[in-house]
Amino acid sequence: MSYHSRIWLLIGLDSIIVLSTIYFSQALINPNMQTLTLPVFISSIALLLSHHLFSFLYKLYKKAWEYASVGELISIFKVITFTIIVTAIVQQVVQRQIDFRILAITWMIHLLFIGGSRFVWRVYRDTYLRNTINQKRTLIVGAGSAGTMVARQLLQNHDAELQPVAFIDDNTKKQKLDILGIPVAGGVDQIEKITKEFNIANIVIAIPSLNKKQLNHIFKECAKTNAKTQMIPMLEDLMTGKVSVNQFRDVQVEDLLGRETIELDITSISEYVTNKVVLVTGAGGSIGSEICRQISSFKPKALILLGHGENSIYTIEMELNDLFKNAGIDFITEIADLQDYDKLSSVMKEYQPHVVYHAAAHKHVPLMERSPEEAVKNNMIGTRNIAQASSIHGVETFVMISTDKAVNPTSVMGSTKRLAEMIIQHFDQISSTRFVAVRFGNVLGSRGSVIPLFKKQIQSGGPVTVTHPDMVRYFMTIPEASRLVIQAGALAKGGEIFVLDMGEPVKIVELAINLIKLSGNNLDEIGIEYTGMRPGEKLFEELLSSEEVHEEQIYPKIYIGKTSELYIEEIDYIIKNFKSLDREHLRKSLLDLANARVVYNKKLVSV
User: Fold this and answer.
1) What are residue 165's phi and psi, to 5 degrees?
2) Domains in the chain, please, with CATH?
3) Which of 103, 452, 489, 577 pairs with 297 at a CA distance of 20 to 30 A?
4) CA 97/CA 283 separation, integer angstroms
5) Residue 602 confidence (pLDDT)
6) Alpha-carbon distance 485 to 473, whole Å?
């Protein structure tokens, strides 16, 4: 129906209702009295004209009545009440008296029929137009304002795939009540029972302010069912209008393993980044690129994107130019090999960076076991080259990204990163540049992370391969890791190894189980296969060795490790002679030195 046809239909319908109500009221009060009298006719005309006047004033003819709610009912109440008041005034002027009883009954019948004629559209739509045959019966976790909005939008959208049939809420005052005709069936601990009772196929977590611990608890209860679990967007995204409340997303493993966001000290970061020249090595990698994104929000004067892979550097350059095109930041790309000191020195000389974030490194444990010489080249020689160039060319702050595998290392990768830490701590002692390292655990979603591998295995139908049932790791998200690196630069005094309080370590097998269930698959169908530990791997990781432990936090969730003994002469010996050593000898030398099991007397000798 067109807009004008719809208005004329409503005007005609209202005219019939208005005219019939006053005559019906007259007949109801005085059945034997003649109804077609002049006073009644005048009252009916006044009633009709004033009704249409107020209807246009309150836009009753423009409302979409299939979505009518309390607001529309209030508008109807106002229109009818003002209409009766105007009619009473007309009666007083013309007849010198007001028929209060007739007008009261007219008001009630008027309200009943006008309201009923409108809301019947809503009832018809919700009852007959809603296709519930192919809809998934849905349980909404959270009967607060967000959960109610979710339910209302799903009920109003007759094309929605989800049909809300029950709420879950731990507020006992809401339990056993109905909200929008939907029962609040119980608390979070009853999710498994209620899912079976209501034959639930889909669960929507509708509490945008949930912290990670609460979300983890809810998901564990949801994981006991076979229902697919989704959640509404985060509170900040809803408030900024990026997404609407009914744009559900799947629960990600990052939601379950990440911790509460670390609040940055914006002032201190701005002081050493804003309007400064910043250089990031490994800028095309997962950590390096995220550092570039977050640093750009602080509006540096220039950001130098240095990396070895041209494709990844090109990709992050295009992204940053698009995201920050009006920020006035000069994004500069440099393709360089960390082993080429002359190239690094020329870059430093040309751009004179104030801050360097050293994210470039070889990080894959099994691959570095097979190629220890490459780990020495990239992680040790590369770190020494960029640190030396930074020192000579007056960089103010140098932040190196390290790993928890550098603590009591059992792998070549961990050993070379531990020795790289010693290199930058040594430079801090001999240079005016502040050199620091930032140590954290596994990063979710980074290249080489176990998460992409598990997802690929699940998509292929399984099984998911886990090295050992007891293997545990610390996990953090890429944005969280990047925030720590940036904050460390602001806290740097020189020589520190910063460590994040990473909470409790997570069992890899539990991570695999969660991913299988989050993907909507059955654990029995996908399966888990144990393959045995790979060379260089440990069952658990540490963030600080016993000699480094310093219990005081220098910033919320950030600790600082004590400086341990540096073996610079031994490191120099390995760098000078690693090409002459066979792989096994080189591997043993790196492990021994990183674990302080050697002394120096013109050659490496085990203690």
Assistant:
1) -120, -15
2) 3-129 (no CATH), 136-251 (3.40.50.720), 266-600 (3.40.50.720)
3) 452
4) 87
5) 43
6) 20
**Inter-residue contact 498 to 439 (CB < 8 Å):** yes
Long-range contacts of 218-224 (CB under 8 A, 24+ apart): 218/141, 218/188, 218/191, 219/251, 219/255, 219/256, 219/514, 221/188, 221/189, 221/191, 221/192, 222/141, 222/191, 223/514, 223/517, 224/191, 224/192
Lookup: tokens for 398: 């140098």
Here the tokens at position 388 are 């030396």
Residues of the chain with pLDDT under 70: 1-4, 6, 23, 26-41, 43-44, 60-71, 95, 118-119, 121-134, 158-159, 233-247, 253-264, 442-449, 474, 501-503, 536-538, 540-553, 556-557, 561-564, 597-607
Q: In which residue are the tokens 């944005």 written? A: 479
199 CB neighbour count, 10 Å cutoff: 9
- Region of residue 229 (left: phi > 0; alpha: psi -120 to 50; beta: else): beta
Q: Report the candidate in 285, 549, 504, 532 with the shortest Cα–Cα distance to residue 407.
A: 549
Contacts of 112 (CB under 8 A, 6+ apart): none
The secondary structure element, H or E, covering residue 445 is: none
Q: What is the model's pLDDT at position 30?
A: 66
Q: Please, are residues 406 and 379 in contact by the beta-carbon 8 Å criterion?
A: no
- Most distant CA pair in the chain: distance in Å? 127
Long-range (24+ apart) CB contacts under 8 A made by 267-274 are 268/490, 268/491, 269/298, 269/486, 269/487, 269/489, 269/490, 270/298, 271/490, 272/354, 272/355, 272/396, 272/397, 272/489, 272/490, 273/298, 273/300, 273/355, 273/486, 273/489, 274/298, 274/299, 274/300
Long-range contacts of residues 187-193, Cβ cutoff 8 Å, at least 24 apart: 188/141, 188/217, 188/218, 188/221, 189/221, 191/139, 191/141, 191/218, 191/221, 191/222, 191/224, 191/225, 192/221, 192/224, 192/225
Q: How far is CA 336 from CA 34, 386, 390, 553, in A?
A: 102, 11, 15, 37
41 neighbors 94 (Cβ within 8 angstroms)? no
DSSP sequence for 90-138: HHHHHHSS--HHHHHHHHHHHHHHHHHHHHHHHHHIIIII---SSPEEE
By three-state DSSP, how is residue 278 classified? Answer: strand
Residues 546 and 483 sit within 8 Å (Cβ to Cβ): no
Give the CA count within 13 Å in the CB-facing half-sphere of 381. 19
Tell me what pLDDT residue 601 has. Answer: 45
Structure tokens at 61: 């003819």
In this prediction, residue 424 carries a pLDDT of 94
The residue behind tokens 């000798």 is: 605
**Three-point CA angle 456, 462, 463, nearest 5°:** 115
Q: Residue 184's CB: how many other CB atoms inside 10 A?
A: 21
Condensed to tens digits (0 to 9), the pLDDT of residues 405-427 reads: 888 888 999 999 999 999 999 99
Catalytic residues: 405
Calpha distance 226→111 (Å, rounded): 48
- Sorted by sequence, the CB contacts under 8 Å of residue 544 that are 6+ apart come out as 407, 439, 497, 499, 550, 559, 561
Strand, helix or coil for residue 547: coil
In the numeric block, the tokens 């409302």 are attached to: 63
pTM above 0.85, yes or no: no
Nearest to 541 by CA among 465, 468, 441, 446: 441
